[in-house]
Design a protein that fits this description.
Helix content is 25%, strand content 30%. By secondary structure, the chain is an alpha/beta fold. It folds into four domains: 4-209, Rossmann fold; 214-303, Elongation Factor Tu (Ef-tu), domain 3, CATH 2.40.30.10; 310-420, Translation factors (Elongation Factor Tu (Ef-tu), domain 3, Beta Barrel); 436-589, 3-Layer(aba) Sandwich (Rossmann fold). The strands form six sheets. Strands 2-3-1-4-5-6 form a six-stranded mixed beta sheet, sandwiched between helices. α5 crosses α6, α10 (463-476) packs across α13 (576-589) and α11 packs parallel to α12 (537-546). The radius of gyration is 29 Å and the shape is elongated.
Length: 597
């Protein structure tokens, strides 16, 4: 791969980020041929002074108002490597765009106006960079020409911002006095600032740690999609995604988290490419496995013999909130990390911090532009790294009403109630002796998708008669199906559970063992019907942990749904045959059964 470093430019509005970038591109000859002359001519025709920022601010609204609204990207290269520059907006109304840009960065340059000094967003952006786990940064004190290149002005800003950076633990590689307008200290040293003995901005960029150091880290690749080709007998299932760190090659033993499924890389695939020997950090990768596994978007790929990611549904996080409405405990949100998207809620708000003053308070909600330390509970387990171990796989965004309203980093993994069960499942998957016959081959042979159908509801709602009727109808139509009542396990598989004192623990263990038996039957290609009284979402999460959630259909039988369970079908107001027909229609619509009736 080419060694490309992503650098975000941040800072308060009008402090000159775009001007510095435009000047650097112009002075290094990195602009498209004629671009500089084109912008200058456009300025002349519109009777306005030329600004290097116009090279970046392509949107009309930006040029007319003189502010950067979105995160513009551009590229240039030196002899040592390539760079992607992200010009993030400085205006407080566009902090969300700044976070989006910074989330893709490996390093940062924060620009401060020498004349205006350290402003609110200078601090806020610095805190955001720290929160996003960016571990290398340069502070540019820009517009030194407006203060006559005065060393005292520069030193005063260095002292003030150094104290702030120390408080938030932001690592600053260097402070550099520059003028984007005149070009001083941009690509070479300045004779007007002989008092400064440091490097120019361009030379300092070369001192940033290379992205190639990520290649030596543990493999992390969020699965973006799985592509299957059927034309001309091509039966490949290509698992695709972008490698955040590490490398992958043929023969590597890999594990998918949080499912714990294990496989061996059979081939490396690429569009319109010759033979590929290895994919590394930064590459868009595709590979196949030596056997077919059902892998979903959102899984995190890691190597068997390397540092494992965390897998849980609870964690500590630092959150920067950008939404118009406050972040509250009573609401549900969506969290996106890597390629995974899950529902979440706030379990606890530990503290709320003003990102400019660093004043901390205990509050029951988080307002716009505030930073908080929270405990987040996800509705299903996710895989991630703590920020101290891997900054890219610790970053997330929070979505409220279809908008990105916040972002942050995971600082600590916390245990959850399903942790012990999840560890058992991962060990089971790791040790599982696989058949020569895949679950896909069984699905094709049996003309059905192996599925667990859970029928729950009130005690006397008629779950068992419905389950037996559904089993009979599907069997008569040639399907491979089995009805498993939870009571059938009590004196066999569950015979030793009576030794457990806690009623709740007994129930959880009943459900765990029932789910494991269902998992075996599903692996054999069957449709399994299970009945249980008044299952709640907490109970369903045990099934979701043990059985692939894509292979589960939940039906509630009874007039009212009396728990918080998520179900696909609510059956009420009819008889057994009517319910059975509705259940079969659902299975058809969800692709569980393929034969027409």
């Amino acid at each position: 791969m080419s060694d490309t470093l992503n650098i975000v430019f941040a800072g308060h509005v009008d402090h000159g980020k775009s001007t510095v970038i435009g000047r650097m591109l112009a002075d290094t000859g990195s602009l498209p041929k004629g671009k500089l002359e084109q912008i200058k001519e456009s300025c002349r025709k519109n009777s306005k002074p030329f600004e290097y920022a116009f090279l970046l601010d392509a949107l009309k609204d930006e040029q007319s108002q003189g502010i950067t609204i979105d995160s513009a990207r551009c590229f240039f290269k030196t002899e040592s490597r390539e760079y992607q520059i992200i010009d993030a907006p400085g205006h407080i109304e566009f902090l969300k765009n700044m976070v989006t840009g910074a989330a893709r960065a490996d390093a940062a340059i924060l620009v401060i106006d020498a004349e205006e000094g350290v402003k609110e967003n200078s601090r806020r952006h610095g805190y955001l960079l720290h929160m996003l786990g960016i571990r290398q940064a340069i502070i540019l004190v820009n517009k030194m020409d407006l203060v006559d290149f005065n060393q005292e002005v520069f030193d005063r800003i260095v002292d003030e911002y150094s104290d702030f950076a120390d408080e938030i633990d932001l690592k600053v590689n260097s402070f550099i006095p520059v003028s984007g307008m005149t070009g001083d200290n941009i690509i070479s040293g300045s004779k007007k600032m002989n008092w400064f003995s440091g490097k120019s901005m361009l030379d300092s960029l070369e001192d940033f740690d290379s992205v190639s150091t990520m290649i030596n880290g543990p493999l992390r690749m969020p699965v973006s999609d799985v592509y299957k080709f059927t034309r001309s007998g091509d039966n490949r299932r290509i698992i695709a995604g972008t490698i955040f760190s590490g490398s992958i090659k043929v023969g590597d033993d890999i594990i998918f988290y949080p499912s714990g499924k294990k496989g061996k890389v059979k081939t490396l695939e690429g569009f319109n490419r010759s033979k590929i020997n290895m994919y590394e950090a930064g590459d868009a990768a595709g590979f196949t496995l030596d056997e077919q596994l059902y892998i979903q978007r959102g899984e995190l790929v890691a190597k068997e013999n390397e540092l494992r990611p965390k897998n849980t549904s609870r964690f500590f996080a630092n959150i920067f909130w950008l939404g118009k409405n406050p972040l509250e405990k009573r609401k549900e949100y969506f969290l996106k990390i890597g390629t995974s998207k899950v529902r979440i809620k706030l379990e606890e708000i530990k503290s709320v911090l003003d990102s400019s003053t660093l004043e901390s308070n205990v509050k029951d909600c988080v307002q716009r532009n505030e930073v908080s330390e929270c405990i987040i509970k996800t509705f299903s387990p996710i895989s991630f790294d703590e920020v101290a171990d891997h900054h890219l796989t610790s970053r997330f965004v929070i979505i409220d009403d279809y908008e990105i309203c916040g972002g942050g980093i995971i600082t600590e993994s916390l245990s959850d109630s399903l942790g012990p069960i999840r560890e058992k499942v991962q060990l089971r998957n790791y040790k599982w002796e696989k058949s020569y016959i895949s679950i896909q081959e069984r699905a094709t042979r049996y003309n059905q998708k192996p599925t667990l159908v859970i029928i729950t509801g009130d005690k006397d709602s008629g779950k068992k008669p419905l389950a037996k009727c559904l089993e009979k109808k599907l069997f008569s139509d040639g399907h491979y199906i089995y009805y498993l009542c939870i009571g059938n396990l009590l004196y066999g598989v569950d015979a030793d559970i009576k030794t457990i004192d806690s009623k709740n623990e007994k129930r959880r263990e009943h459900i765990r063992r029932l789910a494991e038996v269902c998992h075996i039957l599903i692996e054999s290609g069957q449709i399994v019907i299970v009945t249980a009284v008044m299952l709640a979402q907490e109970d369903l999460e045990i099934f979701n942990t043990i059985v692939n959630r894509d292979h589960i259909e939940v039906l509630w039988l009874g007039d009212d749904i009396k728990t918080d369970i998520d179900c696909e079908l609510h059956l009420f107001g009819g008889d057994v045959n009517h319910y059975c027909d509705n259940a079969i229609q659902l299975l058809k619509e969800h692709g569980v059964i393929f034969s027409p009736w």
